[in-house]
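Researcher: Sequence recovery benchmark, item below. Answer with residues only.
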């Protein structure tokens, strides 16, 4: 059995004694907005090694937020993967993509990491990325095109990367990035929203998660590089006719509706400077105007250029957008993804959580960074649009909602990567005997259209729905997994995801595996922790796999339920 090296992408930046002094911490965290340099008295850099991705530093960030890839590393080690075969590749999440390479040589080092892993382990790597880590990996693949001769590019990928697991990937961006840019998002940190906004807008990476239209693409820099000799100009964005004939740029609704004063030649949005009484009087008398902005108008800068007269600090975002995204020499990241040219691609995300998809903003009358307030929020939830205020919402909701952070249309964009024929299987997330399994084979898949399974759901049961290629390019496999109620930030700690990832890895690595994908017919316990006490039947659940075996120190009946056979023997069922 081949043991593939495993690379984990996760954004991490470690600052010791994180919040012991907020001002000092801000000094170390903030970057100069225009050139992305550190404060002259303090700088922060990413941690390295597995410790950087398993848990965050103790302190105010504790509880659910502190554990990251820890459970996944434990699963790998428990089932026989050597710890030195698990390679963490954290990055400085504050920097825009080009600066990761310019300052840290991040992508050169990443390429070397893949090549070293191949020499040490004798096989290609498995790549796991979560959230913005997927954006980093996408940029690496595009950067690699310009580093390797075209005829060797696919060969390099085939030799060095066996499979790519994209977990919670914001493939069309996330509306929460707009909220963070205009009013601030704390993500549970003990800082004010204004301070969070100040930080967010100082980071060049802040625009990397901005939502964008699925209908607009940029020039192919790859071919420009080779046929024109150099890349000299910003990416020219070209939109399909559907962008102008359909509503909302392929999103459920307009992303931003913002109230601006009707008088544009005044400093209507207060800055740090004192505001004169005359200007204040004019603001109060002026009738405000409501302006709406689609995903395209967010990503191409129209939103920010419209409000910069009222919010001068927003000019830094416009500069970052033009320099680090529209003018990026490798890729404009604010364009739709194509399927990565990797043999095996798995796209995994949560669905049917209440997810923000639009905002109403208005001036607060306070100075920057608190000069905008959110007056209403639009949510998508299980096929409908809701507003915090209870007002009716116009739009085109998806049949499912997102994972609580990223909307469904963004997460599910990877369904476009599936082949023309798709097999769909729906199974309970919990261990099961196959009695509640539903399967539909060879469904026609048309590019650009969602795949809607005609399947039932039992109440109070959480399911996982698998979409898998029935037909694809020779040697390629694509699968999409949708996990009911899986939260964006917690999905990498969910036991069901750990189990499914491990079973797929086991299936791929084992020389005797016969099927294209691991079987979905049943799911039994794989570890002692998966055995439980069935109080209704006064015995251990799954008696064919688990038995009651007390060991000193067990404090409840469930702890005394243990596997009858070794995990290795149980795994043979899934080949």
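Model:
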């Amino acid at each position: 059995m081949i043991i593939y090296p495993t690379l984990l992408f996760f954004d991490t930046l470690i600052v010791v004694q994180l919040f012991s002094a907020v001002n000092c911490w801000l000094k170390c965290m903030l970057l100069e907005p225009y050139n992305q340099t550190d404060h002259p008295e303090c700088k922060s850099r990413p941690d390295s090694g597995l410790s950087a991705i398993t848990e965050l530093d103790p302190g105010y960030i504790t509880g659910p937020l502190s554990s990251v890839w820890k459970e996944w590393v434990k699963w790998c080690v428990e089932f026989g993967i050597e710890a030195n075969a698990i390679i963490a590749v954290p990055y400085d999440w504050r920097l825009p993509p080009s600066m990761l390479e310019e300052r840290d040589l991040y992508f050169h080092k990443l390429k070397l990491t893949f090549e070293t892993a191949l020499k040490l382990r004798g096989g290609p790597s498995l790549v796991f990325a979560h959230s913005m880590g997927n954006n980093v990996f996408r940029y690496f693949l595009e950067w690699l095109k310009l580093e390797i001769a075209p005829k060797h590019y696919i060969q390099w990928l085939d030799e060095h990367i066996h499979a790519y697991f994209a977990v919670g990937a914001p493939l069309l961006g996330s509306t929460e990035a707009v909220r963070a840019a205009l009013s601030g998002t704390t993500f549970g940190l003990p800082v004010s929203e204004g301070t969070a906004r100040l930080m967010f807008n100082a980071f060049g990476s802040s625009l990397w998660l901005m939502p964008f239209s699925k209908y607009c693409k940029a020039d192919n820099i790859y071919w420009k590089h080779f046929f024109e000799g150099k890349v000299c100009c910003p990416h020219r964005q070209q939109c399909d006719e559907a962008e102008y004939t359909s509503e909302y740029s392929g999103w459920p609704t307009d992303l931003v509706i913002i109230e601006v004063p009707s008088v544009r030649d005044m400093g209507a949005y207060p800055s740090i400077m004192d505001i004169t009484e005359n200007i204040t009087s004019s603001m109060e008398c002026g009738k405000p105007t409501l302006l709406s902005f689609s995903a395209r108008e967010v990503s191409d800068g129209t939103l920010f250029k419209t409000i910069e007269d009222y919010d001068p600090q927003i000019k830094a975002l416009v500069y970052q957008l033009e320099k680090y995204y529209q003018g990026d020499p490798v890729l404009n990241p604010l364009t739709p993804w194509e399927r990565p040219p990797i043999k095996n691609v798995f796209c995994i995300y949560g669905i049917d959580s209440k997810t923000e998809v639009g905002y109403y903003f208005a001036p607060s009358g306070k100075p920057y960074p608190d000069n905008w307030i959110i007056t209403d929020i639009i949510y998508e939830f299980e096929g409908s649009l809701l507003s915090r205020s209870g007002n009716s919402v116009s739009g085109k909701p998806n049949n499912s909602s997102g994972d609580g952070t990223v909307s469904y249309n963004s997460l599910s964009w990877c369904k476009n990567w599936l082949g023309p024929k798709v097999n769909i299987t729906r199974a309970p997330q919990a261990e099961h005997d196959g009695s509640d399994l539903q399967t539909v084979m060879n469904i026609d898949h048309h590019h650009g259209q969602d795949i809607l399974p005609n399947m039932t759901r039992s109440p109070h049961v959480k399911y996982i729905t698998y979409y898998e290629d029935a037909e694809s390019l020779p040697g390629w496999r694509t699968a999409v997994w949708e996990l009911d109620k899986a939260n964006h930030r917690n999905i990498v700690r969910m036991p069901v995801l750990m189990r499914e990832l491990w079973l797929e890895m086991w299936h791929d690595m084992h020389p005797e595996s016969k099927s294209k994908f691991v079987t979905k017919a049943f799911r039994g316990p794989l570890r002692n922790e998966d055995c439980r006490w069935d109080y209704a039947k006064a015995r251990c659940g799954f008696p064919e796999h688990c038995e009651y075996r007390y060991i000193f120190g067990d404090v409840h009946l469930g702890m005394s339920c243990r596997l009858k056979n070794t995990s290795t023997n149980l795994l043979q069922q899934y080949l």
